[in-house]
TrEMBL record:
Gene3D superfamilies: NAD(P)-binding Rossmann-like Domain. InterPro entries: NAD(P)-bd_dom_sf. The lineage of its organism: Bacteria, Pseudomonadati, Pseudomonadota, Alphaproteobacteria, Rhodobacterales. This is Nucleoside-diphosphate-sugar epimerase. It comes from the Bacteria. Keywords: NAD. PANTHER family: EPIMERASE-RELATED.
Amino acid sequence: MKTLLSFGHGYSARALARLLPDDWRVIGTTRSDDKAEALRATGVEPAIWPGSDLTPALDAATHLLISAAPDADGDPVLRDWQGAIAARANRLAWVGYLSTTGVYGDRDGGWVDEDSELRPATKRGKARVEAEAAWRAVPGLPLHIFRLAGIYGPGRGPFAKVRAGTARRIVKPGQVFSRIHVDDIAQVLKASIDRPNPGAIYNLCDDDPAPPQDVIAHAAELLGLPVPPELDFEKAEMTPMARSFYAESKKVRNDRIKDELGVRLIHPDYRSGLAALLSRKPEK
């Protein structure tokens, strides 16, 4: 039986699990009993981690997905299970590591692709570069690295804030972000599982890098609500975390997922993605 062991079974991993055929077994790690029950309700076998022995799950796994983010001490999965994973490398058909386009750093609005130099500008980006290298260093692992742009989808988008009147259109001249709908993340991961290419690195983003204020404005227009006024980045009150997202501006190329995996994006731009979210159901 094909078995996916998903470390840190969160938003993107849940979307992938919904695409896998019924004859797959999916084991997902979570930190709490409450979340474990929620996973079980979706047909995923929950495993509490940290806190339980995952050896039986690793023995059964044919595929691994790592969504868990690095922490101050490095990659938590490798910290706990590197030896066990390395010992089973020749039994694994596919390993996917979810990273971030933050590894490329700031490019002043210029383009990057998977062969671009890694120049992370933030602490989070640097941690991801180190984690990618640590995973590549595990011998014999059929590793695939996926560098994700900003994720949106059901429950993650601008509509709730626009409706509540709390959305802000913060403008930093020249600032552009790439983004990706969770449904497209799932289809890329599934395509890679179907056509494994160990060592491959893929950027996951749509075709339309855009200023964040344009996305907010379009969401308001779709809802028939007033477009929030522009706020100058330098004068806007923001948390350090929020401000750090504006430290990098780049456009990310996604040709490889199309050329190598045959992916046709479900939502090639934010307009398509937002329209689909609105037609599906209102965000909570």
